[in-house]
Amino acid sequence: GWIGNASYTSNTISNIAFINPSLNLSSGGWGSASGIVAANTQEAINNVFISGATLSCLSTCEGLGGVVGNTAGSGHLSNIYFVNGAVSAVGPRSIVGGIVGLLQSSKATNLNVINSTVSGGGIISNNGGTGGISGFSFSERITNSTVSGSTITATAVDGAAGGVTGLNYNPIYGNNITNSTIRATSINAYAGGLYGYELNPSNIHSNT
């Protein structure tokens, strides 16, 4: 990524545009990869536009996103557009999202994935998931975000694909999924317009 690890700073990454960037990893393991930031716990990332990006991991990437691999802590993602791009990882522990792979405790609002494809081979039992916005949303809400004209695919047995997030733990509010395809191509896999697999059955969601 442009920034490998933003875990020890508290600045802002903003007002950035990338046209046709490419990032291809032959292996991943516990690593993360993304168009701008690989790992983030402190940065605010906002007002970002990425068009025509191709990001791929030929092994397991536990956090592969169009913009951020994984994010936690006080980081905040907002006003981000990922357009005409493709994000994919094949490994069984892969967590893949159009904007962010693994969303832990960071805030996420107004994230937009348009005319793009997201594909992942992660399996639920390994906390793997594939989503239009995030692969795995663990401890923060995704709000006021959009997935439009895109295809989200879980390719593995026991996989999960969702329009907003593959695996979900928290409520999801005010998001829109339009003219998109969310699918699972293997047996015993899950696909849903909002999320692929819900880890917290007590959640109440409100979206369109």
Task: Provide a descriptive summary of the structure in words.
53% of the residues are buried. The protein has no helices and 26 strands. By secondary structure, the chain is mainly beta. The strands form four sheets. It has a seven-stranded parallel β-sheet, with no helix packed on it. Strands 2, 6, 10, 14, 18, 19 and 23 form a seven-stranded parallel β-sheet that branches. A six-stranded parallel β-sheet has the order 3-7-11-15-20-24, with no helix packed on it. It is 0% helix and 53% strand. The mean pLDDT is 84.
Order of helices and strands: EEEEEEEEEEEEEEEEEEEEEEEEEE
- Provide the structure class: mainly beta
Distance between the termini: 33 Å
- Strand order within the widest beta sheet: 1-5-9-13-17-22-26
Report the total helices.
0
- Round the mean pLDDT to the nearest integer and report it: 84
Calculate Rg over CA atoms. 14 Å
% residues in beta strands = over 45%
What is the molecular shape? globular
Please describe the biggest sheet, giving its number of strands, its sense, and whether it closes into a barrel.
7 strands, parallel
Q: What share of the residues lie within helices?
A: under 10%
* Extended strand count: 26
Low-confidence stretches: none
